[in-house]
Amino acid sequence: MFRKSAFTDKVIRRLLLLAVLFLGLQAVLKSCSSAVPDAVEKQNTIGGAMLNSMAEGVESKLSILFMPGIAFAMENGRGGTLFLQEQITAMFPFYGYAGRGEITETDSGTDFRTILLAEAEEGTYPGEDNGDTESAEPETEPVENGGQVPAVDEESSLESMQELLRAENEAAAIQQPTAFIPHTKQNQVDLSTIGSYETLIQQFYTIDANTTAGSDQLNTDSLLGKDMTITKEGDGPQILIYHTHSQESFADSVPGDASTSIMGVGEHLAEILRETYGYNVVHHLGQYDIESRDDSYSVALADIQQVLEDYPSIQVVIDLHRDALPETTRLVMDLDGRPTARFMFFNGLSRTKKTGNIAYLYNENQDWNLAFSFQMQLKAMEYYPKLTRKIYLKGYRYNMHLRPRSLLVELGAQNNTVEEAMNACEPLAHILHLVLSGEE
């Protein structure tokens, strides 16, 4: 029901002014058309026809433009009249300027489009807490510029517009490129130029300040000399994916929804490896950091060992994480039109500067672990330049002793979106397949 108020009176007055302008224009056009002498009209009927056509065109166009808005206003009250006012102002800028003297203090600063967009977006970002009733201020609605405006009483009157905006956003997302196309080799890394230990470190590694790495382990002969290929034969799984830090989430993760956390990203990676590359993958969903992250590696160890005992065919173990970085750092790049989180391979050296080699964290597979991450990094540099960060070397073991082909991946960071993290799974899976299959 249309609710009459001073606001609606103002809009109606403006509609009447618009109607007067239209009728005046129509009368001028028609009078000009009728004033053409018969003799001239017979000799040059194009001009008269043009004027009549212009008058009819204006009438038709205004009817098409504004009748739906008028109907919407009659049905939806204040929200409808605000929408109609915006429509009129957009089509006739001089009209809005001419009526500026009537705008009250309440109207100034009110941007209906901003309010509508804010309301349409409410609840769209899953990471936001929209249920905090204690901090809510029902008397006002926020706008993007930080100001406050009177709340719209008829919230239901905007539902159709909100649904329209959501539909448009979904349609835009569908139109974005969604199919990942694996890259061919983009460039060839010349290993002859990294013969020295210093050059190898500079191009491939970041060494944590608490540990050391020597040329006895980090040299291209050792890193490339180990065969990382595996076989897909047999019925058992070849790959295990798990998460020591299962609670790691992203900027727009939904609290309590594991499918939008690092565990959901792990499942997406597992699906790609299964469906695209034909691997048999176990995705272990154990949670070891709910109460504390301090002992999560030691807590997880027994369970992961049990999984490997249950599936002795597993040859590759991937501990999938996401990093934590300053909010000003964004690990994202445009990969073929897709926003894609950058990622990093990580190795533990079981050695610190303070203690030296840590005997109780001995890793008999450390050289294989280092060779695995190096060969992954090399393929990434050749097929997806700049997608990966340098391999990070730190002092402890991180359960990487369980298999020769153990890989710890830091995929994105806390300020990446779920979409960016999910998009990174395709190139990561492709790089993994290139190394495990030996393809060039």
Identify the notable features of this structure and list them briefly.
single chain, 440 residues, alpha/beta, seven-stranded mixed β-sheet, two-stranded antiparallel ribbon, 13 strands, 44% helix
The number of E-state strands comes to 13
Based on CA atoms alone, the radius of gyration comes out at 33 Å
Averaged pLDDT, please?
Answer: 77
Which bin fits the share of residues in helices? 40-55%
The major pleated sheet works out as: 7 strands, mixed
| Low-confidence spans | 35-45, 89-153
The chain-level structural class is alpha/beta
In DSSP terms, counting alpha (H) and pi (I) runs of 4 or more, how many helices?
12
Beta-strand residue fraction: 5-15%
Strand order of the largest sheet: 3-12-9-13-6-4-5
User: Could you spell the SSE succession in H and E letters?
Assistant: HHHHHEEHHEHEHEHEEEEEEHEEH
- End-to-end separation in angstroms reads 70 Å
Described by its quaternary structure, the protein is single chain
Please characterize this protein's 3D structure:
The protein has 440 residues and is of the alpha/beta class. It has 12 helices and 13 strands. Strands 3-12-9-13-6-4-5 form a 7-stranded mixed beta sheet. A two-stranded antiparallel ribbon has the order 1-2. A two-stranded antiparallel ribbon has the order 7-8. α9 packs across α12 and α11 (366-383) crosses α12. It starts with 5 loop residues before the first helix and ends with a helix.
Give me a quick take on this structure:
The chain is built from 12 helices and 13 strands. By secondary structure, it is an alpha/beta fold. The strands form 4 sheets. Strands 3-12-9-13-6-4-5 form a 7-stranded mixed β-sheet. The chain has a two-stranded antiparallel ribbon with strand order 1-2.
